[in-house]
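We modelled the chain as a single entity of 170 amino acids. Its sequence is:
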Amino acid sequence: MPIGAGKLIYEPYLMGERSPHLDPDCRGTFIGLSAGHTRANLIRAVMEGVSYSQKECVDIFREMGVPVDDMLVCGGGAKNPFWRQMLCDLYGCPVSTIRSEQGGALGVAILAGVAAGIYPSVEAACERMIEKKDTCEPVLEHTKAYEPYFALYKSLYGVLAPKFRELAEI
């Protein structure tokens, strides 16, 4: 299934949205759905939509001057090399998994180690406790291919937000 999911875009606002749009009324949508789309198109569109939503947040960090030149992922989705490559291509930076299968528990252990004085800072604890497992690099052609879909995805919230509010008020 090629990038763009057969010209199908998914907005993943199933429970409203918190970031980057603080909007409890927005809802999930498929834009461009036709009878010709398959289950594979729908799955790819969902994966792309969730990834676009995360990219919006990454872009906000970059706009604030926070360098995002490396990404770590963990949990169920991180086990999928296809999705990791999608994130990598969209973010335009390497994406790595970590050896620990329990990212949340590792985060708590890092903070506890700092609070207990075992490590002088979160950064020092992360350097010591986080071990990368697999890393993928962005594919420039893929990054470019995602650009028009991501631009359209970003524009859809502004267009649909008033309708989400209208629907919530019915």
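As a brief sanity check on the tokenised model: The two ends are 38 Å apart (CA to CA). The chain has five helices and five strands.
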